[in-house]
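Hey, I'm writing a tutorial for new members on how sequence and structure tokens pair up, and I'd like a real worked example in the thread rather than a made-up one. If someone can provide the structure for the chain below, I'll link this post from the tutorial.
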Amino acid sequence: MKKRVIFLLVLVAILASAMILFAKFSLSEKSSREKIVVTPDIFGRVKLNGGYIGLSYDFSQVKMLKIGDDRIEVIDKKTGKLLDAYGEEIKSLDNGRSQYIVYREKENDFGILRLYTIFETQEENGNKEIGKVVGKYWDIMSRSGWYMENQHVVTISTTGNFPTTEIETGGTVTIVKNRVYRDINSLFLKKNYEFIRKNIDLGYRYSLY
């Protein structure tokens, strides 16, 4: 009986320790993703983890929230509406190279739409440059019946050449939804189809320094 009580006490102690560690981890994780109000620099840029996103808004009408190190949200001060979001992900490769995945995000009734740029950087003697663009594309994160047509994306070096320290990406896309409805004027309630289309264009600048 005594051994059983000791075993139960040890088990309780282990469970309690696990719960404390989980709580600390959750608080740490929550803290690392806290939203902090940030101010653009004199060039209208906001710093992410690996570089700067160039913003072109009336800064008296919006506020910028930085979430962790890798996401910026632009909020309308009057309505509280999310206007845009920007983010990045950095992956280490080899020989001083890294892969950057940068996006601009637009949310609407079609769900969440993102314009991505993927590029590689090379670092030598503490200096980092964008060597090449390896991908650029649109993606719908939550479709809800919408799909994309006529996708176009262009990424250029703002200096005109690669390697560079700043790129600009711009693109257009048509978001389409096929709506089915019944024609109440038809004797047999025939199905009719209507295509809803929205043209979206987005762009952004990203610089390492």
